[in-house]
Design brief:
With about 425 residues, this protein is mainly α. The protein contains 19 helices and no strands.
């Protein structure tokens, strides 16, 4: 699709897209920040907390599959706006009525389903408005902004909840998400829907496209690690502070802030990873970053009793590399799949990639509970739990191997092309 808008209009629209998505995604890790409070108030085990985290991801998964299919038939902007409205209303409802495991699980499932209407329409908008040579960078900036949004919630939710209560805090999050709907409605330019392809074309474009399927497989492996790490970093930070003698309220506040820094630095990682994918090729860049994140997942929990400064240093590296490969996957699909089937390709990507985000946090929590039944201290328990996440990068590196070999032949002699555009 030819972009005929003026450069300043494109920048303004992209800035509004990023700001609106930043505000709308405030809910993503709020429950993670509240686990130390709600575990006591609702008497939740680590397994139950993991199930609530997984229910949120399951709701998003259902919405992603539906929205991805709709994007080949509908314009992306209205979907984003209404999703932001529903997310805000869902968090206001959570603040008013959530009171135990089952109500929390059900409401987070609904909010997750509403959140699923935000991400894919934004990617489709980027594919429609950004030239192929800059899509890695643009996607990286967008994902980086979302990552900072996740971290922002970790930064303030725990502290505010300890001071004014978690219900008032969640109500404030809901108001921010309603504001996001206003930003998206007023600032993001409307784009006409891309004419959808037939089922036969979709099969040829996606289901028999081996390169696209490898990207989807690697994205799935990436999400296994990423969302397990994001979901449990705040409780990990709170636990290690308490093990050092910090009181519960202070540990909750400072643990959330430390987790926010670890998650938030991923915004920089996404931007740098997107730029790296523009220069080295999508698969090569992703494999390098997957290898680095594997080392982090395999060792992070075992650092429980090391000096806090060392843990934070490793955590910042972990936070960067675990997100850094994200732009490569979306940018790859934009180039491997024609526009007529891109929404469906995103739908398939999210079907598999988001399914593991519903499982990974729950498996982490169950592993943590299981490890606590055996001998060993907190270091052993957390080390084993984080080690489960290291399985993801191994699978991702394997999936991308043929594509990385192709990248070596074509990059950096030429910038990654756009055969599907």
């Amino acid at each position: 699709m030819t972009n005929t808008r003026k450069p300043e209009e494109g920048f303004s629209g992209f800035a509004s897209l990023c700001l609106g998505q930043f505000l709308a995604h405030q809910t993503a890790l709020t429950f993670s920040a509240l686990i130390p409070i709600l575990s006591g108030e609702w008497r939740l085990s680590a397994s139950q907390a993991g199930l609530i985290l997984g229910a949120f991801q399951l709701g998003s998964l259902i919405a992603y599959v539906v929205v991805g299919i709709l994007l080949d038939r509908m314009a992306s902007k209205p979907i984003m706006v209404w999703a932001a409205v529903l997310v805000g209303l869902g968090d206001l409802l959570f603040a008013l009525v959530a009171h135990d495991f089952w109500s929390g699980l059900g409401l987070r499932l609904l909010v997750g389903a509403s959140l699923g209407g935000l991400y894919l329409p934004a990617l489709k908008h980027i594919a429609e408005t950004v030239p192929a040579a800059r899509r890695g960078m643009a996607t990286g900036i967008f994902i980086g902004v979302l990552d900072v949004g996740y971290a922002a919630a970790l930064f303030y939710v725990g502290g505010l909840a300890a001071g004014v209560g978690w219900r008032l805090t969640m109500a404030g999050v809901g108001v921010a998400e309603l504001l996001a709907a206003v930003v998206l409605a007023r600032g993001v330019p409307a784009m006409p829907p891309t004419p959808g392809g037939s089922r036969t074309r979709y099969v040829a474009d996606v289901l028999t496209n081996r390169s696209a399927l490898r990207v989807i497989g690697a994205y799935t492996a990436h999400n296994w690690e990423l969302f397990g790490m994001w979901g449990w970093t705040a409780p990990f930070m709170v636990a290690l502070l308490q093990a050092r003698g910090v009181g519960p309220a202070a540990a909750l506040t400072w643990g959330g802030m430390l987790a926010a820094g670890t998650v938030g630095v991923g915004g920089l990682g996404a931007v740098l990873g997107g730029r790296l994918s523009d220069r080295l090729g999508r698969a090569r860049a992703a494999r390098i970053l997957l290898g680095m994140s594997f080392l982090c997942s395999a060792t992070f929990g075992w650092l429980f009793h090391t000096p806090l400064a060392f843990i934070l240093g490793v955590g910042l590296i972990y936070g960067m590399v675990v997100v850094g490969d994200s732009p490569s996957y979306s940018a790859s699909l934009m180039e491997l799949v024609p526009p007529r089937s891109l929404g469906g390709a995103f739908s398939l990507q999210m079907l598999f990639g988001w399914a593991v985000t519903a499982v990974s946090p729950a498996v982490f929590g169950a592993t943590l509970d299981l490890a606590r039944h055996f001998h060993g201290g907190e270091m052993t328990h957390w080390g084993i739990a984080y080690g489960v996440l290291a399985l993801g990068p191994i699978a991702g590196v394997a999936a991308l191997w043929p594509l990385a070999r192709r990248d070596r032949k074509t990059m950096p002699a030429a910038t990654a092309g756009s055969p599907g555009s």
